[in-house]
Amino acid sequence: MSLPTESIQKPQFSEAAKAEIDRICKQYPAERRKSAMLPVLHIAQAEFGGWVAPEVQDLVAEVLGVKPIEVYEVSTFYTMFNLKPVGKHVLEICRTGPCQLRGSDELTLELERITGAKVGEGPSADGLFTLKEVECLAACGFAPVVQVREKYYEQLDTEESVNAMLSELRNMVHRPALPWEETGLPNALANN
Ligand code: FES
User: Fold this and answer.
1) What's the 92 CA to ligand 1 centre distance in angstroms?
2) Among the atoms of ligand 1, which is closest to the Cα of residue 95?
3) Are 51 and 110 members of one domain?
4) Mean pLDDT across the stretch 94-116?
5) Which of 56, 129, 184, 190 sits in a 20 to 30 Å window from 176, CA-based?
6) Of 75, 99, 125, which residue constitutes the final position of a domain?
7) What integer pLDDT is reported at residue 65 of this predicted model?
8) Ligand 1 centre from 80 Cα, in Å?
9) How many structural domains does the chain have?
10) Is 54 part of a structural domain of the chain?
């Protein structure tokens, strides 16, 4: 009887991501590749479905020439890295003072009601949305604010603005190209 030795396929970065990682790492001395940890983790998260599974973090460690534990220490410290599977869109809802004064608590409840997802829990049943509360997104003048990838949705204090955001996200067939991509979707995200 043969044993399933390769039941889990090892993740691999796309060629575009590898080129971007090389470009970033060249900004540091060869013996300091670890300094590129944050941008490489961001690339990994974008490449592999919006979260960094343990095997993806191991790949990051391999690429940077560090021990896996050194990557785990960083990924578990910064809240921008998702350690569990997420929905197609991760809505980062600012909960800091100015946004709270402008209704972020009510916005969170409304987003939970509409999407069916709960803050801090798994994706909505349709797989479209994950809700996260985050600290100040540095757009306080436009509170309340939600960040989805590189885009900010601002002044979400009306039913119309919230519905417009959700409608735009629901109708997004492909996510926007990332800075290191020419066009299209690399590997795992195509199905996300
Ligand atoms: S408090 Fe929400 S963006 Fe600053």
Assistant:
1) 11
2) 2
3) no
4) 97
5) 56
6) 75
7) 95
8) 16
9) 2
10) yes
Res 190: pLDDT: 40
The Cα–Cα gap between 62 and 59 comes to: 5
Q: How many helices (H) and strands (E) does the chain have?
A: 7, 4
User: What is the DSSP code string of 129-162?
Assistant: EEEEEES--S-GGG-S-EEETTEEE----SHHHH
State how far the Cα of 171 lies from the Cα of 152, in Å rounded to an integer: 17
Name, in order, each residue with C-beta under 8 angstroms of 63's C-beta and a sequence gap of 6 or more. Answer: 13, 21, 40
pLDDT of 6 > 80? The answer is: no
Q: What is the pLDDT of residue 1?
A: 40
The answer to whether the CB of 131 is under 6 A from ligand 1 is no
Peptide bond into 144 cis (omega under 30): yes
Kindly report, residue by residue over 55-98, the tens digit of the pLDDT: 999 999 999 999 999 999 999 999 889 999 999 999 999 999 99
Contact predicate 140/60, CB 8 Å: no
Q: Which domain holds residue 132?
A: 89-170
- Distance, CA of 132 to CA of 113 (rounded, Å): 14
Task: Establish whether 140 is an annotated binding residue.
Answer: yes
In a domain, 129, yes or no: yes
